[in-house]
Amino acid sequence: MKSEEIRDVCRSAKVDEIKSYIERRKELGLELIEVYELIKATKDVEYINNIISNSKKRSELDLYGIANLIASTRDINYIKSCIGRRKELELASNDIISLIIATDDDDYIKQCIDSKEEFELEPFYLVKLITAIKDVKYIKSIIENISKRKELGLYSDEIVQLIRKIGDNDYTKSIIENKREQLELNSKVVELIATIKDIEYSKECVYKAKELNLEPNDVLNLIQSIGDINFIKKCIEEKEKLLLQSRCVIELIKGTKDVNYIKDCIDRRRELGIPNNFLYELIQSTKDVNYIKQCIDRREELGIDLFDTFTLVEISEYSEWTETFFQSIEKTNSFEDIDKSKKAKVIHLPSNMTIGVEIESEGENSDVIEYKLSNIIAEGWKCKHDGTLHFGAEVVSPVLTEDMKNASETIRKVCNRLQGLRSKSVR
What we know:
The protein is mainly alpha-helical. The chain is built from 32 helices and 3 strands. The longest helix has 18 residues, at 404-421.
């Protein structure tokens, strides 16, 4: 039989006729889903009960939802009896919830809510039951009774869902502005403000942040949710009035995505109270390679530390700066300058021997060495963490061959560069 024929049978045939199709399912070549739809179409409580009470038949049909078969009877007493037999019928939590809701009996649903332990209901399912009642006063009674909602295991996420379900902006505002609720809902207050979808009210809340007991990150999220670039800029300029922390200011500046404005903020970093260790984020956010390179050249003026400098070098692929930088620290911090009386020596090895060198280094800029300088401090030289060092890193050479003059010069170069990196003047 075709699916269209099955639908016609389910829609217009008498119960006995539908049952005859079920009995002849093999002869008719019916799929299991088609049999399921026919059983559901009978709406015969006794017939359906005989099927679902048989564990073998029940397991065959369970793929398509035993709860739907039970609900299809539209017999409230029978549905309630099946809820009572939920363990015998091996009903899952979502099946139990759908059946409780299918009773459409508000008093019964409330009893089930109050018996959540007996039904082993998680908060997610409780919210579904509470909102199924469609009684705004009842929903509000749970929202407003903190001890009751805690007894039910409902916390900020669930309460926000219930408030949103009511869909009354004035009521939502009353919750937002309730001191007790501010403490209970914590960061969820911002989520409630956003649900009102009133930009002017959201802006008003930004300026009432302290009164609404909003944390700095909450204020940041609220400003960002408004999506008004001019308002974001206004908040940045009024950061002291709004008690915005440096991290929030940085995120807001980046959030404007206005390259010229970001550059202007970098120039006004002292006025805006932007710490040097946040500058590289702003510089990076411009995505202007030439500007990034200019900032690398101005690193000392801008107070950007060496780790952040190398991060910007990677982004801008400014390899010329790296080599110039190493040459400068080699020149000012080389071992030859420390003791000119010592003549540089060359390592001599048998022609058939190769060696590798590990140099352990402790002190300033260990994080730079460890995370930034592999294959940069010298070609093929790896930099890594060394757990035996208190504040240091290990630099490992590639395999060194019989060309020991070149190897000796490279080892000396690496040592000079490490020595230079240990100078506080390069940070």
